[in-house]
Batch of 3 targets.
Target 1
Amino acid sequence: MTWTFTDSLPEYRTQAGDFLTAYPAENTVLLTLLHRLEQGRLTGGDPEQAPRHGWWRPSADAPVAGAWLQTPPQGIRLSTMPVRAAVELADLLADEPDVTGVGGGTVEARAFADAWAAHTGATATVHEEQRLYRLGELAVPVAPGRLRPATPDDHELLVPWLADFFEFVGFPGFDAAGIATQRTLAGEFFIWEDEAGRPVSLAGLSQVIVGMTRIGPVYTPPEARGHGYASAVTAGICEVARERGATEVLLYTDLANPTSNSIYQKIGFRPVADSVIINFGQ
């Protein structure tokens, strides 16, 4: 078994890119992070701290079979990988002070967290248990209104919506203003308007990478909930995704939220795999 670490994004792409793209659904988060880093669009990380990356081979001459990426201060994100690779990675990073947590497939992330806690004495607390869904046959819900792309004129609306979303999911430190600007200019944010033309729901759609795109965030302000707007905006951007050439439309849900899991399944999403985000503390 062997891990290789690098600070070079081009080297990471060269070594791990084929492996990541071979499993686009399971590695959706890493592919999206890598794409945004290559575009100079770091979201959720500290611009003063360089991203870190690595890849794993079961032997020196074997193909890559695992990878990780971190944009500090966010936790490490794991690709799909053998459990032994996750454990070895935790062993190798045990002296690193910037490892604040881990996310990835449930089995791999828990194996890393258990090894990390054993080495460091840190506590490992589950932040969120998630389920990855893939769109099957789209069922378009009936809701009044229309979908439109977000524009720079929506900035003052999007920032508090995103801040509320990040607060709710437990990431209050994210730069809502910066993310609103970047993703709007990239054509990744869409708004559902009601019949009166009032914005009532927001959804994000990542860039299409090797046929894969991922929906998120999806947010409806409290005063507009209960009218089917979240379903409508999600179904609407599913159609946009397919118009853009996506063959795999993915999204994550919080397993603790039965409402969102039910909504997305009614639209046509089907479970792929479970994942978890784990935070470390002393």
Target 2
Amino acid sequence: MRSLSFLILFVSLLLACKKDPKANTDDYIQLKSTEINSEEIAAKGKILMENKCYLCHSPSSSQGSRIAPPMVAIKARYLKDAQSKEDFIKDLWAFVEQPSLEKVKLRGAAKRFGLMPYQPYAQKDIEAIASYMFDYKIEEPKWFQNHYKDKHGRTFEQNGKSAAQLAEPEQSYAQIGMSYAKSTKATLGKNLMGAIQKEGVMHALSFCNVQAMPLTDSMATKHDAIIKRVSNKNRNPNNKANAQELDYISLYKQILKNGEEPEPIVVEGNKKVNFYYPIVTNAMCLKCHGTPGKEIQRETYDKIKELYPNDKAIGYDVNEVRGMWSISFDKD
């Protein structure tokens, strides 16, 4: 019965993948006041910002340990140029769609942290985030106003509604699983990016070798769940995917190949929920997971082979499925 369910899921998703992603514009938020001003879009944008953006742009990170500017700094800078809400949304999407030094508005941040790597985000998600940022007061780090005043001679006054007015929607199992994956990714990513920025890729490899599994386990304990990162081309032997997970990884590869946006897979049991979602590469990943002699420098590859003699996790390009989140938690 389980095999039949997977076959039905595989065929239905595969057929959906064959559609031209540009043919159905209903998936994209149209820049109309009736839509971008709705509380439903704002509530979605708030959750998306917390799940997608706070990995690097967290408001809780200290000023000295940051790996990217806080979202309120981005809001302040984009508001400076925007003549309208539509301008604000379009400008933000224009950068995220194709990050480049020519499009950078926060030049000081780009100089300090480097250019944001390309991420395959959906336009509708970024527009929802931008809509929320424009209309609502978003969380600020405690140090932000003093920093802003030092740079600009004044504080930044956020005009907008309180986010407390937004009703928190009841979460589905897919949303719960995604929140566990994103919070674990944020914990791993924050530490990894910090290691890279402070001491380089070589140090980050040693960090991953020692700390990645304990950090993942700590998040599993926090969420009272089983949280794994698995792959068909694993680096750590403990991250090897089982037969069921390999099927889902293959499915996600096909979805990305056809230009579709992946969605979580949720399998409900009597008492447990199993959640799956792909881990997709960006430009930063290729420093350790790209091609030796190309993205991976020689000394980095030598260190990888020293730490992981049976490593398989190389040869990737941007926007490819490197592995998958495999998370199990109680229904209750």
Target 3
Amino acid sequence: MLRAVVFDLDETLAVPDRDRATLLAEATEATGAPSLDRSEYVEVHRRHLTRETREPIFDELLADADVDPASVAAAYRESVTNSLSILPGVEPMLERLGERYRLGLLTNGPVRAQRTKLEALGLESPFDAVRVTGELPAGKPDERAFAAILDALDVDPGEAVYVGDDVETDIEGATETGMATVQVLLPDATPDPRADAHVDQPDLASTLPTILDELDVE
């Protein structure tokens, strides 16, 4: 029996109005920092999922530059936060799902970055539990991250489904933990066969409730 639904945040419930490479370029330009490669940023970010801020990320990336990493982190946080909006229909969907399931949110990233997003979007209140990996011993796909949100919701892995877009951090991580998974498909994304179901990102709010009904009877 399905008792809980846990969501990813970025590119699942909230989407930016411009790509992350552009947002990163805006932050470096605003602070006079050298331009940074987005793929290199992502690689370093993965090593700092349990931090308070993004400052250690930029400290590593800009080690040879005469720039304050904290100022770049703050500028990037502001650019990302201001770019985000909730997918259409998500808020009423969460309200409906909350009448049937315990709702959780598990998001990768430093505490200040992710909590700032949630506050700006007003997205904390629909959830019974929210966990940011900056507050945890490990980030997704580590099973400890998923265990933290499951413990907070007081459910077993087999009683929960995880909804997210990233194949490695979301689908692989949740599957290895023993949760069912729904992959949110961005444009040009390839459906992962390990996911129990798939939904195109724009159709999340309208389609997910039906998918959950189907998973609940399997």
